[in-house]
Design brief:
The protein has 13 helices and no strands. It is mainly alpha-helical.
Length: 304
């Protein structure tokens, strides 16, 4: 092999490596390497799909909502990091994010967000008109959330609204209607999300105080644990009401007991307000959501 060929092969290899590096950074910007957010967003979707369809959701609707959850979570992470690109370098937990360390440019982030937004819109085209209208509202919630932290003292509640908006969407897609149980389940999801995102905000509370970011953890102060407990209790009470309204049985109630045990365990983890314990408590909410869905799934599966 002559020298020119070697140089040419070296250039091709360098180019391929460069593209792989770019794609890896885009994936990190979308938090593909941290799927906990996908699961926390997906659990209320699955709760709603199964309850609205009495345990037998439509295959097409199921696929659209699962893919849509991944796409919207990815888009939300991109626009969140774009909004926080000046603050993230100042926070220990976020300093290594692609925009914070400038391995991805703001223009690239906006282009990626636009592509994900177009994909999300394409996904709702096969769905009925009420679901499409609700999807547009959900898109507005997802886009505006990251910018509220500058002036809104309770952004975690707004995130709860955005994360739980998939519940009425699932009912509308499956039944074309929005019964009372859909809104009770929506309220439960909103309270649950506000609780676990407040726990998450406790991890960054000291950094947020320095840089001027608002959060429920800062707003609640020393009352944080008590208010989180009330939010968790409200979410569980709403899920009890959903179980009664949907005539769910012992498998569902077993799942709720496991979820309640998770809430108690989370209170234990955050008792000292230590960042590591708070982060473990946040992650434990994946088990909370799984327990509720497992109860719903098994109850319909073994229903006589």
């Amino acid at each position: 092999m002559n020298k020119a060929t070697e140089l040419g092969n070296g250039g091709a290899t360098s180019s391929q490596s460069g593209w792989r590096d770019r794609l890896r950074e885009y994936a990190r910007l979308m938090r593909v390497d941290r799927p906990i957010g996908i699961w926390l967003l997906l659990w209320p979707v699955l709760w709603a799909l199964w309850i609205s369809a009495s345990g037998h959701p439509g295959e097409k609707i199921f696929v659209i909502f699962v893919i849509g959850t991944f796409v919207m979570r990815s888009a939300g992470c991109v626009i969140n990091d774009f909004a926080d690109r000046e603050f993230d370098p100042l926070v220990r937990r976020t300093a290594d994010r692609p925009l914070a360390k400038q391995s991805v440019s703001p223009a690239e982030a906006l282009a990626l967000f636009g592509a994900l937004g177009i994909l999300a819109l394409a996904l709702v085209i096969p769905l009925n008109r009420p679901t499409q209208v609700l999807a547009l509202v959900g898109g507005v919630l997802a886009v505006t959330y990251p910018f509220l932290k500058r002036f809104f003292a309770l952004p975690q509640a707004y995130l709860g609204l955005a994360f739980s908006w998939s519940v009425p969407m699932a009912f509308a897609a499956q039944t074309g209607e929005l019964p009372l149980v859909a809104w009770v389940l929506f309220a439960s999801g909103m309270l649950w999300t506000t609780a676990y995102d407040t726990i998450y905000a406790m991890v960054d509370r000291e950094d947020d105080l320095v840089i001027g970011i608002r959060s429920s953890a800062i707003l609640f102060g020393r009352a944080d644990r008590g208010i989180i407990a009330l939010l968790q209790a409200g979410a569980l009470a709403g899920l009890v009401a959903v179980g009664r309204m949907s005539a769910l049985g012992r498998w569902y109630w077993t799942g709720l007991l496991v979820a309640a045990a998770c809430a108690v365990y989370q209170q234990y983890l955050i008792r000292h307000r230590e960042p590591g314990g708070c982060f473990r408590a946040f992650l434990n909410n994946n088990l909370f959501g799984l327990a509720v869905f497992g109860g719903i799934l098994l109850d319909y599966l073994f229903r006589r």
